[in-house]
Specification:
- The protein has two domains: 109 residues, Spore Coat Polysaccharide Biosynthesis Protein SpsA, Chain A, CATH 3.90.550; 112 residues, Spore Coat Polysaccharide Biosynthesis Protein SpsA, Chain A.
- The relative contact order is 0.18.
- It contains eight helices and eleven strands.
- The strands form two sheets. The protein has a nine-stranded mixed β-sheet with strand order 5-4-1-6-10-7-11-9-8, sandwiched between helices. It has a two-stranded antiparallel sheet with strand order 2-3.
- Helix 2 links the parallel strand 4 and strand 5.
- The protein is α/β, with parallel strands linked by helices.
């Protein structure tokens, strides 16, 4: 594993959210949600954790917790573009080898999942890494809001800790037929060169059709490793999710 000085966790965050306005500043247990996410990143003990903010209020919240935040262009079309701008600002000498994109709506995340994204990058010659967990709830198999990861696991019953190359990601129920399906978890690790290449690519046809940014990487030949884990982190997307997160935090 690279030394801590060569790994950085970056959390993209912006106040504009259609389903939950001002989401990063939503209070959970007396602290703004973005602070909880920053703390989960720190608990992973991998290296620096930086919040890439689109709004000054987010910077103020993180800096008030003695964290580090950088302002980025509010007009960025994606979190990947936002973390790349932040990376250029905090590491102009290009010392960082691995970049972890930590979503800002995972206040209850197990820090071990963050570490797992780095383990996947170390497991093979992958340009990017991500995670997946077996789908246990039958309703999730056909839910388009649950993204399915199709990966080339060598066994018919893959176990926690296995790593395989991603073949596709879809909102549909794939692959067809009997066997396990896997719930994609939106944590990403990048080798620096892969992130730089990715943000320079235009949106791809399958990405636009499925509305899944990671398909741009696959369509352009980037290799994504998928690590199998046994838990799905709780994400906050709606007011109901926020209330549930408050209860879980208690």
């Amino acid at each position: 594993m690279p030394s801590e000085s060569r790994i950085v966790i970056i959390v993209p965050a912006r106040l504009a959210s259609e389903r939950l306005p001002n989401k990063p500043l939503a209070e959970i247990g007396g602290r703004p949600m973005i602070e909880h996410v920053w703390r989960r990143g720190m608990e992973a003990q991998l290296g620096d954790v930086v919040v890439a903010a689109a709004d000054q209020e987010i910077c103020d919240a993180i800096e008030g917790a003695s964290g580090r935040a950088v302002m980025t262009d509010p007009a960025h079309p994606s979190g990947s573009d936002r973390i790349f701008e932040a990376l250029q600002k905090i590491d102009p000498d290009r010392q960082t080898e691995f970049v972890i994109n930590l979503q800002g709506d995972l206040p209850l995340l197990d820090p071990q999942l963050i570490r797992a994204t780095v383990d996947v990058l170390n497991a093979g010659a992958y340009d990017m890494s991500t995670l997946a967990a077996p789908i246990e709830d039958e309703a999730e198999r056909t839910d388009p809001n649950v993204v399915k990861a199709v990966a080339a696991f060598p066994s018919t019953s893959p176990q926690t800790g296995e790593v395989a190359r991603a073949l596709y990601f879809s909102r549909a129920t794939v692959p067809y037929g009997e066997g396990p399906h896997f719930h994609h978890i939106g944590l990403y690790g990048y080798r620096r060169a892969a992130l730089e290449k990715f943000v320079g690519l235009p949106p791809s046809p399958l990405e636009q059709r499925e509305k899944l940014e990671q398909l741009r990487a696959l369509e352009n030949g980037l290799q994504i490793g998928v690590g199998l884990v046994d838990s799905i982190p709780f994400g906050v997307d709606t007011p109901a999710d926020l209330e549930k997160a408050r209860q879980l935090m208690k």
